[in-house]
Design a protein that fits this description.
two-stranded antiparallel ribbon, about 325 residues, binds 3-methylbut-3-enyl trihydrogen diphosphate, 17 helices, mainly alpha, binds magnesium ion
């Protein structure tokens, strides 16, 4: 409980910084309205929290990482808007996705504006950090966003090309890009803002990569087994989208030829009925694939946590470790 209160205080700090930027922009409503809508819906804000904590964990004042943290959350939200269009998703943070409320054209534009706003925020790092630090953060984040797009391209292409031969290794390579890179970058940029040593920056980056990968696996678990009220996205959406998740890879590796054919049929088409989604789920569950993926996520988190051994003990390190556990226990 104490831990939770402390984590909340980091979230509040980030929230305030983000709204400082969003509230200072009013017109046109067609751009800022959808963005305020998305941020008002909430969101866990775990990425910026990690950035602040990483800064502190290497001995920096968290204020040094505040702009970077806010910019990272903006980048994350920008990718979500585009991702929902690409995935043809229905719900985001418990409400219809931006493209469903405002249409594709304004949603795409709002996301582009948010991406650009993130870079404006990063420019403000010049006011609070040395030039080289600001430049390093720019370079790292730009590279990361490119990697996210690489991962997204791979993820999207697997369904598009009807690929059912994806190995566990292919999948992990895709996740390192799609989700791991940004969370790893949260740690790295935070540590850089906090003037951490090269060894500390590297260790935190690897910690972030591990927990980021685990975060996505757990998300894919929730997609099939969570509650829509907490998760805020449609349950079973990944089946309809034909996503090659670790769960699906495990299930395809174990099921009999008849089950395999049926599972592939359902994954390969959109507009599945609830009944068809349930059928795919029952094949997946029969082979214990959800539990197996969930166990794998926990194992990855445990390994990742060990990377923080090189950091001196501190409250922020404890909070980072607590967040790592939360990544694979969360229900939202
Ligand atoms: C959703 O990210 C996208 C994934 C990488 C699974 P979050 O689960 O962090 O989404 P919000 O920001 O809390 O809504
Ligand atoms: C989220 O990916 C977007 C990025 C990681 C860039 P997913 O498509 O897997 O996640 P959700 O379920 O829509 O949040
Ligand atoms: Mg998606
Ligand atoms: Mg996606």
């Amino acid at each position: 409980v104490d831990l939770q209160n402390e984590l909340d205080s980091y979230k509040t700090l980030v929230e305030r910084e983000i709204w400082r930027y969003l509230d200072s922009r009013k017109e046109p409503e067609e751009l800022y309205g959808p963005l305020r809508d998305l941020f008002k819906r909430g969101g866990k804000r775990v990425r910026p929290m990690i950035t602040l904590l990483s800064c502190e964990a290497v001995g920096g004042r968290k204020e040094r990482a505040l702009k970077t943290a806010a910019a990272i959350e903006m980048v994350h939200n920008f990718t979500l808007i585009h991702d929902d269009i690409a995935d043809m998703s229905e719900l985001r943070r418990g409400k219809p996705c931006l493209h469903r409320v405002y249409g594709d054209a304004l949603a795409i534009n709002a996301a582009d504006g948010l991406f650009s706003l993130a870079y404006e925020v990063l420019c403000d790092n010049y006011d609070i950090l040395p030039q080289e630090t600001t430049r390093d953060i720019f370079r790292i984040l730009s590279g990361i966003i490119t990697r996210v797009c690489e991962g997204q391209a791979t993820d999207i292409s697997w369904s598009k090309k009807h690929r059912f031969d994806i190995s566990e290794q292919d999948y992990f390579e895709m996740l390192r890009l799609k989700t791991g890179a940004l969370i790893s970058g949260c740690c790295e940029t935070g540590a850089i803002a906090g003037r951490g040593s090269d060894e500390q920056i590297k260790a935190l980056g690897e910690f972030g990569m591990s927990i980021g990968i685990a975060f996505q696996i757990h998300d894919d678990v929730l997609n099939l087994s969570g509650s829509v009220e907490k998760y805020g996205k449609e349950i079973g959406g990944d089946i309809n989208e034909g996503k090659r998740t670790l769960i699906v890879i495990y299930a395809l590796g174990e099921c009999n030829p008849a089950e395999r054919k049926r599972l592939i049929d359902i994954l390969d088409k959109t507009g599945n009925s609830q009944e068809e989604i349930r059928e795919a789920l029952s094949i997946i569950k029969k082979h214990g694939s959800i539990q197996r993926a969930s166990d794998k996520a926990s194992e990855i988190v445990e390994k990742g946590k060990k990377r923080l051994d090189v950091l001196p003990d501190s409250r922020s390190k404890e909070l980072l470790l607590a967040l790592a556990d939360y990544f694979v226990k969360r229900e939202l």
